[in-house]
Amino acid sequence: MDGLASVHSLQALSALLSPNNEDEEEDLQKVKPIAKLGPGHIGSPAAPSGDKHKEGSTAYVKKNSKGIWDEDEVTEGAHFDDLTDPRPQPEYEIVMKQSVGTEDLFLGLSRKDPSSMCCDSMLVRVKLPDTKASDLVLDVRETFLDLRTPKYKLGLHLPHPVQKHEGNARFIMEREELEITLPMNRPMDCINLT
Q1: DSSP class per residue in 147-182
Q2: What is the residue range of 105's domain?
Q3: Residue 7 lies inside a defined structural domain of this protein
């Protein structure tokens, strides 16, 4: 019976693991108040419920307490969404483009593949029947494209950030179509594609 513990050693182990309640109360009285703090006590203490304090105790403080959200929380281009505007949205398509040379096609030297990750620009084609080029009003942001004509309205959230100052647009009269070419903003290309 070497492997089995004696009754005496089991009772000693039980007493060690579950001390008397009287001992616990004495131990709790000896503990310093700072040791009784928990995760809810992190940060500055909350103001009493009757007081309204001017300074916020959190990192985020709303500027206008009656507002539902701040201007920083609204996505770019949301102010262009006018639900009361009766103009229809024209047909459009977005085509991803990449410049491919012979070294990419035959030798595979630049590690480009046909995926959209390797695309360097975006082409937006918008069909605008019965529209003249002089009627177009185009505003391009980093993630939003706003196109207005007397007959149509297009507010398009772009699928990828673009370089808003380096794009170009051309209106093709024969097809009554506007083509907008926007270079994509890819700050990590030097790491991903080298």
Answers
A1: EE-SS-EEEEE-SS-B-TTS-EEEEETTTTEEEEEE
A2: 78-192
A3: no
- pLDDT tens profile 150-186: 999 998 988 889 998 899 999 999 999 999 999 988 7
Residue 46 has pLDDT above 70, yes or no: no
For residue 58, CA distances in Å to 47, 74, 95, 138 come to: 12, 21, 45, 41
Spatial distance between the Cα atoms of 43 and 34, rounded to a whole number of angstroms: 14
Residue whose C-alpha is closest to residue 126's, from 110, 97, 146: 146
The β-bridge partners of 170 are: 179
Instruction: With beta carbons less than 8 A apart as the criterion, state whether 124 and 182 touch.
Output: yes
- The answer to the question of residue 48 being in a domain is no
Q: Mean pLDDT across the chain, nearest whole number?
A: 76
Q: Are 124 and 147 in contact (CB under 8 A)?
A: no
Instruction: Say how far apart CA 72 and CA 76 lie, in whole Å.
Output: 9
Domain harbouring 158, CATH code: 2.60.40.790
Give the phi and the psi of residue 124 in degrees, each rounded to 5.
-110, 120
pLDDT at 110 exceeding the cut of 80: no
Whether 148 and 125 have beta carbons less than 8 Å apart is answered as no
* Calpha distance 2→98 (Å, rounded): 78
> Would residue 20 count as lying in a domain?
no
In a domain, 166, yes or no: yes
- Structural domain count, the chain: 1
Tokens of 14: 């039980």
